[in-house]
Amino acid sequence: MTRVGAIMGTPVYMSPEQCAAKSLDARSDIYSLGVIAYQMLAGEPPFAGNTGSVIREHLELAPPPCASAARRYPSAWPKS
Question: Could you tell me if residue 4 is inside a domain?
Answer without folding.
Answer: no
